[in-house]
Amino acid sequence: MYNVIIYILMILLIIFSVIYFIVKYYFQQVVVREVTSEDVMFKEQIKRGLIDNEFYKSLKKEEFFIESKDSLRLRGIYIKSNNESNKTMIFVHGITVGLAYSIKYISMFLEKGWNVLIYDQRRHSKSEGKYSTYGYYEKEDLDLFVNWVINKKGEGEIIGLHGESMGAATVLQYAKINKFAKFIISDCAFSSLNELLERKVKEKGALLKPILKLMSKRAVRKAKFSFNFISPIEVVRKTSIPIMFIHGDKDKFVPWDMSVAMYDSKEVGIKRLYIAKGARHAQSIEVNKFKYEEEVMKFVDEVLNNTDNLNKGLY
C-alpha cells in the first residue's frame, strides 16, 4: 500500500511538473518573447527595401527618454518636418521588434508635412521593461508620448496614431483614455487576446486549452495583467474616434477577420477598412506600397476635411 501511494505521488508530481513547464514555455512565448536587436532589425528592413537608409540618415531627429508610470525608461525619436507643421503622427511597433519597424511608414507623412514620433515600446530595444502586456500598460506609455508632443507643440496640435500588430492593439485600446489624438490607423490588430490565443491553442490541440487559463493566471501573478483585460474590439464598439483598419488577407499570425469584426462593430464615427491582397502579417505596405499609402491618405484626408470632428478635439 505504501509503495502504491509513493507511485501515485510520483505520477502526480511528474504530471504537475510537465504542466508547469508547458505553462512556463507558452507564457515565455506570449509575454516574454525574445526581442530582436535594433541593428539586426534595421539591416533587415534595409535589405527588404522597406527603409531608405540615406533618407532616414538625412532626417532631423531628436532622441529623448521619458519615464513610465511604473518607472521604466522609454526611448522616443521625434522627427521634425522640413516645414513648420501643426500635425504629428505617432507610430507604435509590434511585439519583438522596436521602432526600426515603424520607419517604413513615416515617409508618406513626412512628405505631406507631418512631424513624426516613433518610439520603443516597453522592454523593446532601448526601452526598459520585463513583460509585454499587449496594450494594458502600453496604452499608458503611449499617453505619455502623446502628452510629450502636446507639451512641445501645444494643445492645437493635430495628432494621429498608427500601430502595427501589438502596436495596433495598443492604439485601439488607447482610444479609451484618449484626450488629444484625432484618428487611429490599426494595421493587423487582434480583436481579443483571449480569442487569438484560443485559436492558436486549437491549432495545437484541444488538450492545451486548460493551459491558456493557467497562462493567464501566471500573467496576473508575474506581469500584473490578465489576458481577459485585452479586448480592443470592446473599446472600438464604444468609441467614435475615426479608425482605419488594415489587414493582409494572407495573415496567418493574426487572422484578417479580426479587423473585419472590429470594423463591423464600430457604430459611431468615421471608419475605413482596407484588406491588402496577398499580404501576410504586417506586410501590407510591403506587398503594395503605393496602394497602402493611397488608402491611408484617403482616410487621413477624410478626417482632416471633417472640421467639425477636428474642432471637437474628442471623439
From TrEMBL:
Residues of the BD-FAE-like domain: 190-263
InterPro entries registered for this protein in UniProt: AB_hydrolase_1, AB_hydrolase_fold, BD-FAE-like_dom, DNA-binding_regulatory
Key words of the record: Membrane, Transmembrane, Transmembrane helix
Entry annotated with the keyword Cell inner membrane: no
AB hydrolase-1 domain: residues covered: 88-189
Ranges that cross the membrane: 6-27
Name the record gives this protein: Exported protein
Lineage: Bacteria, Bacillati, Bacillota, Clostridia, Eubacteriales
